[in-house]
C-alpha cells in the first residue's frame, strides 16, 4: 500500500481538503515554476486541484496526473475537459513512465501520506529530465494548522485513542522543518530550496466538522471507530472548541505548508 489517506467520497474530500488545496495550488505552482512547452507530472492528483490549475497555463504541452485512489482518478477524469491532461491510476513509488519523460514533477499535499516517501521522491527524480524540477508541498500539521490542531487536541483530551490519533496526525512523514529538504538531497536532487506557503481556511459555520464526521480523511477514519456515546461526546466537544462560547458562524484559520523544490543533476 502506497497511500495512508482515507477517502470514501470525492465530494466529502472536497469539503474536507479539496477546496483548500485549490487555494494552495497557485502558490505552489509559482514556487515550483513553469515554462511554455513543458511536460508536467502531477503525482497524487486527488480530485485535480493542481492538475487543473496547471491546465490554466496555456503554454504547457502536456499534463500527466496519477493517483493511487480509484475514487480520485474517476472524479478527476470526469472533471477533465482539457485534451492535454491525461489521468490514470498509478503508484507514486512505481511511476509508469520512462526515465526523463517530464520537465517537472510536482506533488501537492501527497508525500506525507506515502509510507515510502524517499522512494516516491526517487521516482519523481527518475522521470524528470536533467536540469528539470522536482517539487512537493505538505501541510505543517504540528505548528501550521491551528484549525485542525483545535480538533485533534480536543479529541486527545477525551481518550487515549484520541491521543494516539494526535501523535500520528502531527508527526506524519515530511512535516518537520527541513525533513523534506533532506529527503530531496538524499535522493540526489541539487539546489534544493525550502519555503513556507500560507493560505487562510475560511469556514462558514460548523461545516468544519461535517466531512470528518462523515468519515473522510485520517481524522474521519478515527471518528468512524467510535461507539455512539463516544461519538456524541466527541461531536459536542469539538463543536464547543469551534464555537468558543460564541454563536456558530464564520471562523478563519491560517494554514502553513512546507514547500521544497530541487533540480535533477
Automatic annotation (TrEMBL):
<dbReference type="InterPro" id="IPR013216">
    <property type="entry name" value="Methyltransf_11"/>
</dbReference>
<dbReference type="Pfam" id="PF08241">
    <property type="entry name" value="Methyltransf_11"/>
</dbReference>
<protein>
    <submittedName>
        <fullName>Methyltransferase domain-containing protein</fullName>
    </submittedName>
</protein>
<feature type="domain" description="Methyltransferase type 11">
    <location>
        <begin position="41"/>
        <end position="135"/>
    </location>
</feature>
<dbReference type="InterPro" id="IPR029063">
    <property type="entry name" value="SAM-dependent_MTases_sf"/>
</dbReference>
<dbReference type="GO" id="GO:0008757">
    <property type="term" value="F:S-adenosylmethionine-dependent methyltransferase activity"/>
</dbReference>
<dbReference type="GO" id="GO:0032259">
    <property type="term" value="P:methylation"/>
</dbReference>
<keyword id="KW-0489">Methyltransferase</keyword>
<keyword id="KW-0808">Transferase</keyword>
